[in-house]
Design brief:
Layout lengths: L32 H11 L4 H13 L2 E7 L2 E6 L7 E6 L8 H10 L1 H8 L7 H7 L13 E4 L9 H16 L2 H6 L4 H4 L2
Helix pairs in contact: 1-6, 2-6
């Protein structure tokens, strides 16, 4: 990520009324194993102070919207300026040479579809990915590209952290979105 202004002072964020508030007021952001793994992944990306400020932003409702697409998370975060910051987070999708093998494995195990339709991530899914030489979760130091329009000159700001924490809660509610981020659409794996 290109360096932004080298001089940056932390200011209080503009208050929002319609932002996405975290379900948790304190403690963990994730309930299920797959969301906990996502939180472990993001907490390895930045120093603890930025992550703490990101958790605060997530709990205060500073994230205005989140959109999860294959290989991309887009969001707007209200910071200290009037105009919300634009956050774009790029993640590698599953290699197209591996995808048919994964889909074939999914189709052989009816329990995977049953879990996903019930809003759960089957425990064996991560091992299934690894058997095919793929990863269910992005690599912490892989080819992920994280961008925010804020003036912070760090590669990982509190706005990015806030979005990633809330995405963990979104994955808790709908594990199919984690697969979507990795490039596997619902129509590929569910009957």
């Amino acid at each position: 990520m290109a360096k932004k202004n080298s001089f940056y002072r932390h200011k209080k964020a503009v208050s929002t009324k319609n932002g996405i508030r975290s379900r948790t007021r304190r403690g963990q952001f994730a309930q299920h194993w797959w969301s906990k793994r996502w939180i472990d992944f993001i907490e390895r990306l930045a120093e603890p102070g930025r992550m703490q400020r990101g958790r605060t932003y997530a709990r205060q409702g500073q994230v205005l919207d989140i959109d999860v697409q294959p290989g991309l998370i887009e969001a707007r975060v209200q910071g200290s300026r009037r105009t919300p910051y634009q956050v774009r987070l790029y993640f590698d999708i599953i290699d197209r040479s591996v995808l048919p093998l994964l889909i074939e494995r999914f189709n052989r195990r009816a329990s995977i579809a049953a879990y996903l339709l019930a809003g759960q991530m089957p425990p064996e899914l991560e091992a299934l990915f690894e058997e095919q030489g793929a990863r269910l979760f992005p690599e912490p130091h892989g080819h992920n590209r994280l961008f925010c329009s804020c003036p912070d000159d760090s590669d990982f700001c509190k706005h990015i952290a806030a979005v990633l924490y809330l995405v963990g809660e979104v994955f808790d509610q709908d594990p199919l979105l984690l697969l979507r981020l990795r490039g596997i659409g619902k129509e590929m794996i569910l009957p």
